Amino acid sequence: MSDHPQDLSLREQAAAIADGELDATELLEATLARIEERDGSLHSIAESFASEAARMLSESPDGPLHGVPVAVKDMFALPWRAPRDGCVKNLFGVGPGESAVYRRLRDAGAVIVAVTNMHELGAGSTGHISAYGACATPWDTSRCGGGSSGGSGSAVGARLVAGAVGTDGGGSIRYPAAYCGITGLKFTWGSVPPDGYTHGFASMGAPGPMCRDAADARLLGGVLLGRPLASRRANSLRLGVAPWFWENLDPEVEAGCRTAVDALADSGIEVREVTLDGVEHIVSATVIRLTLEGLPSTKPEAVAEVMPHLSPVGRALSKYNLLLPAAALVRADRVRGQLRRSVGRAFEDVDLLAWPTVPAPPPLIAEPQVDLPSGRVPADYANVRQGGLGNLTGVPAISVPCGLTAERLPIALQLLAPWGEDERLLDVAELLEQATDRRYVDALPPIAQPTPA
Questions:
Q1: Which of 48, 73, 149, 154 is catalytic?
Q2: Tens of pLDDT, residues 387-401
Q3: Where are the domains of the chain?
Q4: Which of 52, 100, 227, 347 is exposed most, by the fewest CB atoms within 10 A?
C-alpha cells in the first residue's frame, strides 16, 4: 500500500478499508491534512468539514464507499450547509438539507469531506471567477482549472480526494476534467433525482462523477445512480468521427486526440466519419438555453442580496439575461430539436461519437483566452462549441485523458453515447486506458509528485 493512503484510487481506498488494511479515521485525517497542505495555490476547496465528516464516518453504513472521503460541488444541499453556486448565496432558495446526491453518498457509506469551488453562478468554462478565488489546474497553478466544476476536477487531479461530484449544464464536468487530466462523466439527463440541487429545474444539467480513471468513475457513478454500472466488452463497437468538431484545434490537442482514436481503432473499434446537422448553431443555442431557463426559479430577494457581491461579469450577465426576448429561446429549442434528430440518426450507424473535449490546453487565469488556428478567442466560446451538444441532446458524455502537450498540460478526448448508455462510455474509456498503457490516467501533475527523501 502507498505510504500516503490518499494517493490510492477510490476503489483501492474502499477495498483497503473493507479488508481492514486501512483505518478510515486515519484516511479522513490524512485527507484533511492533504487539503490543508496543497489547496492554497489551487483554490479547489470552498470549505472542508472536519467535524461533520467525522460524524458521517461514525455513522457510516456498510456500502461500496464505506469510510471513503469524497467532495461535492457547491450546488448540492448538505444537512449542515446550503449550496452557494460559487457566490455568497444561491439564487434559487435552496437551503441546508438532504439532497439526493447527499443521501446516495451517505447510504453508500461515503464521507463528505468538503465542498468544491465552482465558477460563479456556474456561468463559465474556466473557473477563474468565483467567490472562493480563481480555481487552478494542478498541472500549472497559473492556469485555469476549468468550469464550472473546476474545484472537483482540481481536487481529484491534485490527489486531495480520490473522487468528487460535479455537474454539467454546458460541459461543466468535461471541461475541468480535460484541464485537470482526470476522467469526468456527465450522466444521461434525468438519471439522478434533482432535489437539493440548485439547478434541479434545468433541462440540460446533469450530475456525474469526477475521478482519476474510468474504474473509479464506474464505482462513484454507480453510487450516484443508485445501481451498479456493468462492465462490458467494447472492442467491437463503431465510433463516429464528426469532422466539424475536429476543425480549428490547437495542433497538439488535435494530434493527441487523433492518436487516441487510432489507438481505439488498433484495439478493434471501427471508426467511421459521420455528419451532424445544425452543429454550427451549438454555441448560441447552448448559451441562450442555459441563461434563460433559470430565470423563473430565481428568488428576487436572493438576487438583491447577491448582486452587490458578484463580479462585474456576473452582474453584466444577470442583467443581460433580462434583455433576451422570448423568441430567442424558441429559436434555440428549434436548434435543439434539429440536433436531437441529427444525433439520433447518427446513432443508427455508430455506437458512440468522439472529438476533443476542449480545443486547446488550459489558458492562463490572468488571460482566459486560447490560441487557435483562426486566432485568439475566449476560452468559453471555444469550449462550448465542443461541449454543448451533449447538454442540448441530453446524451451521456465523458472526457478521458489521452495525452500531454510539450508543456505537460493535459489533452482529453470526449466520447458521447446514445441516451442511457452511460456504461458504454466507461467501457470505451477503459479500453483507451489499456491501449495507452494507462500513461495519462496515472500521470501525476507537479503538485502531486512525490517529495524527494
A1: 73
A2: 999 999 999 999 999
A3: 8-447
A4: 227
Q: Is 226 left (phi over 0), alpha (psi -120 to 50) or beta?
A: left
Buried b (16+ CB within 10 A) or exposed e, 246-264: bebbbebbbebbbebbebb
pTM for the full predicted model: 0.97
Nearest-angstrom CA–CA distance, 117 and 236 = 39
- Candidates 148, 191, 342, 399; catalytic one: 148
Cross-strand pairs, 398? 185, 415
Could you tell me which CATH number the domain at 8-447 has?
A: 3.90.1300.10
Residue bearing cell 448553431: 281
Is 73 assigned a catalytic role?
yes
Burial class of 162 by CB neighbour count within 10 A (0 to 12, 13 to 18, 19+) = buried
* Alpha-carbon span 89 to 336, nearest angstrom: 31
Q: Which of 152, 172, 342, 399 is catalytic?
A: 172
Using pLDDT thresholds of 50, 70 and 90, give the confidence band for residue 1. Answer: very low
Helices 24-38 and 10-18, packing angle to 10 deg = 150
